Amino acid sequence: MVTIKDVAKHAGVAFKTVARVVNNDPTVKPENREKVLRSVEALGYRPNRAAQMTRRKKSGVIGFIADELLRIPYTFDLIRGAQEMAWKHNRELMVLNINEHKYSLEAAVDHLFQHRVEGIIYASMYHRQVSLPDSLTQIPTVLANCYTSCGRFATVVPDEELAGEQIVGAMLDKGYRRIAFLNLDERIIAAQGRKAGAIRAFEKRGESLQNLHIESVIVEQDGQLISRARLAACEVIKQFKPDAILCGQDPMAMEIYFVLQSLGLKVGEDIGIGSFDNWDLIPELLQPSLTTMALPHYEMGRWAFNYLLDERTDVVASKLPFRLISRGSL
Amino acid sequence: MVTIKDVAKHAGVAFKTVARVVNNDPTVKPENREKVLRSVEALGYRPNRAAQMTRRKKSGVIGFIADELLRIPYTFDLIRGAQEMAWKHNRELMVLNINEHKYSLEAAVDHLFQHRVEGIIYASMYHRQVSLPDSLTQIPTVLANCYTSCGRFATVVPDEELAGEQIVGAMLDKGYRRIAFLNLDERIIAAQGRKAGAIRAFEKRGESLQNLHIESVIVEQDGQLISRARLAACEVIKQFKPDAILCGQDPMAMEIYFVLQSLGLKVGEDIGIGSFDNWDLIPELLQPSLTTMALPHYEMGRWAFNYLLDERTDVVASKLPFRLISRGSL
DNA sequence: CTGAAAGCGCTTACAG
DNA sequence: CTGAAAGCGCTTACAG
């Protein structure tokens, strides 16, 4: 590979001058700069990042540990958000996927330490509590889409409660009066927050809570998710008679569309449907297309990166809002 | 940060001895090895990868360039496949997402060269032709899920034709006789191959091609994908009267399920449904669940990495088979 | 089995 | 504005 010395010889200057040009040091005679630039071009020189890192004693690398417990399409936006910031600020993002079988979290952290990362983003694929090794306290660390019980790390998570309030508020504002919320498992933090938000929306508007039915229809049993969404929808329609249904996630909404079609009910006309996630193609593919609360994964990725970039050390718990995407189902 | 010299002082040996222990050089007295290991543990020493790379003149890094034209959930398996191999062989995988707006391909390649990558995997998110800068010929490069017209690079792609033959063959073997294939845009290589495979399945079994209807129902117009899947399904059911429908992708199959339900037809009983992709949750969420051909993204990621690992230079065009996932719809 | 010297490709710190 | 020297934390090559 061509080095700084090769370029120097080719350009007829000292290798230090080449280093100056490559690092945009302004104190180089324009004439020499030109010469060097031409040689760089001619030889195809590119600085050796490993050597730079060694000498500078700064890696410029931020580690990103992603747990792969679930495979949810939009979660990749967390990585994307961080990566775009990294690119913009000329930093490296070193992404490591961990999962129980293949790599331990410890091994991932060790790996990142070997690369002398200047900060670590630990991101969970769904909003939940995690527990992390103590070694992470040695280095600036942010948690994205998750939190620890110890409370020693800065975190950024979706504002579940606000999301619940917003979507239910939007439904009420559209004139829907009787809302059935088919929620996720209430042991999940998301389900708790959204439930509280839904109730708050009713209370703020002085609506009677008699007109709000909340029920968990996806529950975890023995490590498996069991959905009784279709059955629950049938029952709730018959007994509670909602004029709108709020679904805990878009895939569930898809199932509800099937139920409604089988009952001869038209979404957006006979009954309104709202949901959470903005899950891949599903919202656009349904007819009518699905109004849903998009998770702020991209924004969380950015937030986490910027926290590290700004060299912050405050232990904040930042909550980012969802984005209401209005389509035809409400 | 603690260095090899700190450890040496702490252990009372020469720093070279520490290096030997860290690199598992067997020619170290067990006694000294113990001493060093204890000091490594006590001081929390971890080798500095940048310094190792600099001196070894080997980066151990493989670059992975991912085009993000589309956001298809399972495409992440391409990265996963490569990453797991990298981990296993103690290599680094440096993943760079490119997209038209943010980073140019050139910039990504330049970035990878700065890191002295020992090989590059260029992966496309859907099977298509790409064009790549000449600079990539300077370094071992494999294309995954894509190919160039120049034919200078090794490639690994899904075997579209075999997939078409397998799924249609499976349908025929189950006793379905009249099959409507609602294909993707035929300008897409996947659609071409699958069509040829479907025809071959009929021919191999001596079935009349009168009983195979193939039609493209998702087409690109002005850069936008237009799906007329629902309409086309209605028409084809009325006119061609198939006993099974093969869908070009799982999201389309979902739409067809809605159509069939509205027509009072039961999937798996009145009519069989097959599909391609194994797209995220969709196949499992449909009732009955969807039989589909899973794309070999994970396998392509592994294949590409192994090609580079084995230091191959042959310009092969490897085709990997899909996996038939049998569920309730056939 | 161990160690002192030289060197990887850069940057830092300093002299001119 | 330019350059020679020293050094980053390791590995290589060699001597003992």
Automatic annotation (TrEMBL), chains A, B:
Name all HTH lacI-type domain ranges: 2-56
Q: Does the keyword DNA-binding apply?
A: yes
The record's section on InterPro entries has: HTH_LacI, Lambda_DNA-bd_dom_sf, Peripla_BP/Lac1_sug-bd_dom, Peripla_BP_I
Q: What is this protein called?
A: LacI family transcriptional regulator
Gene3D superfamilies reported for this sequence: 3.40.50.2300, lambda repressor-like DNA-binding domains (1.10.260.40)
Q: Which domain of life is it from?
A: Bacteria
Q: Which UniProt keywords apply?
A: DNA-binding, Repressor, Transcription, Transcription regulation
A Pfam family of the record is LacI
